[in-house]
TrEMBL record:
Species of provenance: Malus baccata
Enzyme Commission code(s) on record: 2.7.11.1
Keyword terms, alphabetized: ATP-binding, Kinase, Nucleotide-binding, Serine/threonine-protein kinase, Transferase
Protein name per UniProt: non-specific serine/threonine protein kinase
Domain of life: Eukaryota
Catalytic activity: L-threonyl-[protein] + ATP = O-phospho-L-threonyl-[protein] + ADP + H(+); L-seryl-[protein] + ATP = O-phospho-L-seryl-[protein] + ADP + H(+)
The keyword Heme is assigned to this record: no
SUPFAM superfamilies: Protein kinase-like (PK-like)
InterPro entries tied to this protein: Kinase-like_dom_sf (IPR011009), Prot_kinase_dom (IPR000719), WNK_Ser-Thr_kinase (IPR050588)
Length: 176
């Protein structure tokens, strides 16, 4: 626990902190989607980097059915647990800023599109390993109850932890 005399330079440069105080958001934007922005964040309890996903609900104020769909999709994401699907850790609504926020696993090397631009010569063996992981993730989704169809599978929604060759699928809200 930090003391009252702690130097301010020792504090994390968080722009925002979740209601529990566990997660802190940095100002670094990792990506933007059709309805959300994703920022680099830190889980202070586990000591790991995470992705802070933020959806501005004001975009849907005239469509309560769309807001309900958004919440039902977050509930579905929370039920998915597979080594090849990006994990959802926490979710909450910030009424003051009218946003839906959720924490997910972050992949150290970014998406497959960016990774392939950086590493142009990848062996067929490595490509096959990546493809196998993508197919294992899809098999999990297709055999899940209820069945989940990705509907937006492309290299921008496939993420990689390049240090271990782990591939994970990102399920984009409002796309399945």
């Amino acid at each position: 626990m930090p003391s009252e005399n702690e130097d301010q330079s020792d504090k994390e440069p968080f722009i925002e902190i979740d209601p529990t105080g566990r997660y802190g958001r940095y100002n670094e934007l990792l990506g933007c989607g059709a309805v959300k922005k994703v920022y680099r964040a830190f889980d202070q309890e586990e000591g790991i980097e995470v992705a802070w996903n933020q959806v501005k609900l004001r975009n849907f104020t005239n469509d309560p059915a769309m807001i309900e769909r958004l919440y039902s999709e977050v509930r579905l994401l929370r039920s998915l647990m597979n080594k090849n699907i990006i994990t959802l850790y926490n979710v909450w609504r910030d009424a003051e800023h009218n946003t839906l926020n959720f924490m997910t696993e972050v992949c150290t090397s970014g998406n497959l599109r960016e990774y392939r631009k950086k590493h142009k010569h990848v062996s067929m063996k490595a490509l096959k390993k990546w493809l196998k992981q993508i197919l294992e993730g899809l098999e999990y989704l297709h055999t899940h109850e209820p069945c989940v169809i990705h509907r937006d599978l492309n290299c921008s929604n496939v993420f990689i932890n390049g240090n271990v060759g782990q591939v994970l699928l990102l399920l984009s809200l409002l796309f399945y």
